[in-house]
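Narrative of activities, Objective 1.

The group set out to show that a structural description can be obtained from nothing but a protein's sequence at a throughput compatible with the screening campaign. Below is one input-output pair from the validation batch, recorded exactly as produced.
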Amino acid sequence: MLLLAASLFFTTPAPLDMPRAEAYLVRDTDGSRRLEDRYDVFDLWLYRAVVGRWMDDDFRVFVLSSLDVLPPAIYGASSETRSSYEAGRIEADHKSEDQLRLMVDLLSPVIPAEEFSRPRQKPRGYRDVRYWQGTNATAIVCTYLPEKSDVWSLATWELAEGDDFAEMLVAFEREFLDKREWATLAQDASDASVEEGAKPRRRRKAAPSERDLLRRDLRHGVAAYPNWRMTDATEFSIIDCLPGRGFVDTLTNDFPVMRSKYAATVPSPLDGSNTLCVARIYSNREDYLEAAGDDMQWSAAYWSPQRRELVAYLPQAGESELLKTIRHEAFHQYLSYACSMISASPWFNEGYAQYFEDTEDDSWKIEVSGEDLNRLEDMIPAVVGMDYKEFYAGSDAERKLKYRLAWSIAFFIEKGAPKVRFRPFENLKKDYIEGLLETHDMRKATGAAFGSADKLKNFISEWKKFWLRRGL
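Output recorded for this entry:
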């Protein structure tokens, strides 16, 4: 971890999102199946090129990048695994003007000038310093080559509305270029993430696995931020900026137990040995919402299948509430990997997520008196056929009712169905998962699980008997 001194530029960390992944279901020669993630190669390059990004209260954005690897436009592929991208990456030549210009074009927040300029006086510690913003007064774009390096770095500073450009340029040179500790910062941070990640593999001759490379990227993504940490375990990694270590220690112990329970309850037919579960945890809701974007402003946590991240924050209610939330979201994460990122039905996905979140058997009761049980019974055929738009539609009370019904179905499958005579629902979960992998369609998977209208009718009947008995 690099420890950065206070600076005009290094204010609030704004880490990049993880590269977007596209899932492929691959069958190996031995007949086993596995998830293979492929990425837009520009996303992979950008994530590794950017060393750090910061934003101040006036929305000035400062970005540091290391220009050590050529962008994918040079060698032309569009979508690759991390391993194939790593094998084909090409180091940049610091003497090539064309390569430098190409990378500045791709990373600059403004259109670079045709001709660069230099500071009036070259700062100490640099072989070369160049400005590329030309007459544009909204950003400073500076490439620099430290004296003891063969790698160009790029610093861009997007200014706030109303800033005096001349004053901000003086501030940039005084607060950044003239401070020699920043001269090699971009390369030092990039090197630190690779070196630290390489230590456990020093004796291993084989090429790094997808899991290894993902860990390396995670480490790279937080190496420049002193308040962010990375914690590793066999099947998961946690990156966080929490004020203490207590919760992460608890989660490190609890997460493998949770995953074992998920796998025992909903087994995956896929080989998951090369996947990695990632959790990103913010220390407060404000930073979480800034990262989550407009679509997730209502949320307490979420699982992002595209980014392959479980994202959460420490709520005012404390660590116990956060752990409860993570138990829920981590099941969504597990099921996504178990089903090769094919979207599972909300009755199954939300039902089992709620089942694992609520560790007490009676956390959500089904009232057998009055109309509650009959109302839920009538809703089952519609709810098991819903997609997420339909499941989340309606008022808060209507959504809560659907969640409670989904939970009651999962609870019945685990606690009641095994006791039904002749065990007619013994393979329901297996048939659902296989149906999803075969058809890529959540409604067809539900059809495969229940088999026929008569079987669904029998399931509903046994579900009702189970909850009637529990209410007596």
